[in-house]
UniProtKB/TrEMBL annotation:
This is Transporter. It comes from the Bacteria. Signal peptide: none annotated. SUPFAM superfamilies: SNF-like.
Length: 446
């Protein structure tokens, strides 16, 4: 018998865990910092509430409607067609995403271990130099990558209820609590108001066409939509759970965490005279600076990093799960064996990204390191493409009666909301993605 989530809250926490990780906590602050702060945040919220929510509902409908993992789901709902390519794109995309995501997860693990042993927060510490020394060490980054993937393999091999769901249910609430503590300290620092204004007072003159593309890509990245991860997660979902309500809960939690991340980072950035355009290392440089100002800062920082590590893991679980489930759906292959093989292959694939700041720092792809190029390809090209194809599939190929049934199951939502969702998926999602791509290509000029 196919596994199912044991409860609605278990599914929501697992889905939120898949969404709330590096996307909201690590990537959002530095991408927002490089693209105008508040203006970027506002565009991100609009994209998330309109397009991201609609996409999340769509993936939930496809997954529960088919009761299959991503590739088999499209094959089941559209037999004798090429729509299964959406699922295959999802598996490929998750593979590429996990190849650089696990590198950052390794950084978080290394920082967690260093903090627990008192090697991070010190008087007169040079945090930018510390981050540079960690990421420029081939040995350290590869150890971090290996350990991060090992934890993924151990959890995914246990399955849905005993692995993913149990892990998420307890640790996600703790992450929120420690995030709130960090925000309170950050916004009470001298000079914090400049950072708050940067994050909450929009200046649209700072937004470019590429910035809009980043905001769209971030909304997909942060919600884990576009690669059919949520198709696989919702395939384990029972009939008593409302899809629109669950999706709305995940979206609101994600926006809230992004807000907390901005309020934790940007006031501190300006209070300590740093630049918000620092890039991927922003989180690892600012957080120690803030915690150093708190009594028992090392203890709190260690706890926060451990919880952040967990949030990072819960996101990576969904990426590895879609890969593993694609090869175990038939029941002919052992989940444990496939998980271990997948983990080993992911480690090999992650090596170039792990060495992007050390041995391979001079190797560039269109001016970007392997790490940055993979990130750009996944977040700004493949995720929107996957979302575009999913929108076309669910509106024009999937059985309309099944779509309506899954949307309305276990809720009393009016036809207005159903028609609104269909309008967004039919017109707004594909048109927005096309316009953003066209703008990126410069067809409409600068």
């Amino acid at each position: 018998m196919r596994e199912q989530w044991s409860s609605r809250i278990g599914f929501i926490m697992a889905s939120a865990g898949a969404a709330i990780g590096l996307g909201a906590i690590w990537k959002f602050p530095y991408v927002a910092g490089m693209n105008g702060g508040a203006a970027f945040f506002l565009i991100f919220i609009i994209f998330t509430l309109v397009i991201g929510l609609a996409m999340l509902i769509s993936e939930f409908i496809i997954g529960r409607g088919a009761k299959k993992e991503a590739i088999t789901a499209y094959r089941t709902l559209a037999p004798n067609s090429q729509w299964k390519l959406i699922g295959q794109l999802g598996v490929l995309g998750c593979f590429l995403l996990l190849s650089f995501y696990s590198v950052v997860g390794g950084w978080v693990f290394i920082y967690s271990m260093m903090s627990v042993t008192g090697q991070v927060i010190k008087e007169g510490a040079d945090y930018p130099a510390l981050f540079g020394s960690v990421t420029s060490s081939p040995l350290i980054t590869l150890i971090g990558l290996a350990v991060f993937l090992l934890i993924n393999v151990l959890v995914i091999s246990l399955g849905i209820k005993n692995g993913i769901e149990k892990a998420n249910k307890y640790m996600m609430p703790l992450l929120f609590i420690f995030f709130l503590i960090l925000v309170v300290r950050s916004i009470t620092l001298d000079g914090a108001m400049t950072g708050i204004s940067f994050f909450l007072n929009p200046d649209f003159s700072k937004i470019t066409g590429e910035g809009v593309l980043y905001a769209l890509g971030q909304s997909f990245f942060a919600l884990a939509v576009g690669f059919s991860c949520m198709v696989t997660y919702s395939s384990y979902l029972g009939k008593k759970v409302s899809i629109p309500a669950s999706a709305s809960s995940v979206v609101m939690m994600n926006i809230f965490v992004s807000l907390l991340a901005g309020l934790a980072i940007f006031p501190a950035v300006f209070a300590f005279g740093m630049e918000p355009t620092e890039g991927p290392g922003l989180l690892f440089i600012i957080l120690p600076t803030v915690f150093a100002q708190i009594p028992l800062g090392e203890v709190f920082f260690s706890l926060f990093l451990l919880l952040f590590l967990f949030a990072t893991l819960t996101s990576s679980f969904s990426l590895l799960e879609i890969i593993v489930s694609a090869f175990t759906e038939s029941g002919k292959r052992s989940r444990r064996k496939v998980t271990w093989i997948s983990g080993f292959v992911m480690f090999i694939a992650g090596i170039p990204a792990a060495l992007s700041m050390s041995t391979l720092s001079e190797f560039k792809i269109y001016g970007r390191t392997v790490f940055d190029a993979t990130d750009y390809l996944v977040s700004n090209m493949l995720l929107p493409l996957g979302s575009f194809l999913i929108a076309i599939f669910i509106m024009h190929r999937m059985d309309k009666a099944l779509v309506a049934e899954q949307f309305h199951l276990s809720n009393n939502i009016s036809q207005f909301w159903y028609k609104s969702w269909r309008f967004v998926m039919t017109w707004i999602v594909p048109v927005t993605i096309i316009v953003v791509y066209v703008n990126l290509l410069g067809i409409f000029g600068n």
